[in-house]
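Quiz preparation item.
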């Protein structure tokens, strides 16, 4: 298994993050002896085969050349504009957020019968949808950050004019509040609301990114993260801790500002609490039927040992300041070996799916 099609870019608000994550994957594929075949997806959703004149550094370029336009054909896989097949033993889709991490790309790859790294359709859908994930975790008795939800349809209904939604949320959850799109990542579309005006501004902003949003209680908390790896029995790396220098761990702090946060690996926690967090991470992974890899984010109250699951990322960042690969490396699983294990997990999952019978 040599030819690894590395898909990066994409239509989501996390396009730039994907270019940075793609550079890490590309370098470590080459270090691991694989032949990376870079395919960039433009912001408009067009696929292009890439040719690099020199070794990419911290970000993968994405050229849009008509002659290198990629076509996807069920039964044939990937081909260039002139019909030349693109060699592919495995796909590594390092696309974050919408149209990459939400099950859509996974469904397309399965229609093409191509093996791929990371979560399958079902677990991608559940992992991406924060409201669905919370509902499942709650039903399994796992602690989640208290929240309320709102759909665009509810907001556009006649009843909305008579509804004091700010009053409902502030009374139930207190102030300040965090408002998020249900299906977005990397803190895209997130607002911290401190009063009624900023609350409704945040609602309008979040609804630009998704048709359903959630409003979460603000918790004075430490931000704890675990990396998980595996198809059924997850290996846990961490926990680590993020100490943001920004007001909260926003997009800039995560990906742009090298001083946006201090990453504490391992997290300074006592061993009993660490094990409780690791056990919760393992259960949360299993509860959503996750496979491949994920990063689980947990809020630990500063004045107690009470903690809550915040969210899960099924294709976490692989940038130079991303927690997922750093936690793995801290426990001995460096870049090339990490990539190799992810490819092996993808191969294993593909072979299991191909054992199933789809006709009578």
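Solution:
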């Amino acid at each position: 298994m040599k030819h690894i099609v590395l898909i990066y870019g994409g239509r989501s608000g996390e396009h730039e993050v994907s270019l940075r994550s793609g550079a890490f994957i590309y370098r470590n594929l080459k270090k691991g002896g694989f032949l990376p075949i870079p395919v960039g997806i433009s912001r408009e959703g067009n696929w292009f085969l890439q040719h690099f004149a020199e070794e990419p550094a911290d970000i993968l370029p994405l050229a849009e050349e008509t002659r290198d336009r990629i076509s996807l054909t069920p039964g044939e896989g990937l081909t260039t504009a002139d019909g030349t097949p693109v060699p592919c033993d495995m796909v590594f889709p390092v696309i974050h957020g919408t149209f990459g991490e939400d099950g859509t790309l996974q469904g397309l790859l399965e229609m093409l019968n191509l093996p791929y790294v990371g979560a399958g359709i079902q677990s991608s859908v559940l992992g991406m949808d924060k409201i669905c994930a919370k509902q499942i975790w709650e039903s399994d008795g796992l602690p989640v950050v208290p929240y309320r939800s709102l759909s665009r349809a509810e907001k556009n209904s006649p009843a909305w004019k008579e509804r004091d939604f700010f009053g409902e949320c502030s009374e139930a959850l207190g102030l300040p509040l965090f408002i998020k799109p249900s299906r977005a990542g990397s803190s895209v579309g997130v607002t911290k609301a401190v009063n009624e005006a900023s609350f409704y501004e945040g609602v309008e902003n979040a609804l630009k990114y998704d048709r359903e949003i959630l409003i979460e209680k603000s918790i004075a908390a430490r931000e704890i993260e675990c990396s998980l790896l595996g198809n059924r029995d997850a290996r846990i790396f961490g926990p680590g801790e993020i100490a943001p220098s920004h007001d909260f761990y926003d997009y800039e702090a995560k990906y742009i500002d090298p001083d946006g946060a201090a990453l504490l690996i391992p997290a300074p926690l006592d061993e009993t609490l660490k094990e409780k967090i690791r056990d919760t991470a393992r259960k949360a992974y299993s509860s959503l039927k996750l496979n491949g890899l994920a990063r689980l984010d947990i809020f630990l109250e500063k004045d107690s040992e009470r903690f809550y699951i915040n969210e899960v990322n099924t294709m976490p960042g692989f940038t130079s300041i991303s927690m997922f690969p750093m936690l793995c490396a801290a426990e001995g699983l460096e870049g090339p070996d990490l990539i190799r294990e992810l490819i092996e997990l993808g191969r294993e999952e593909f072979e299991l799916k191909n054992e199933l019978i789809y006709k009578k």
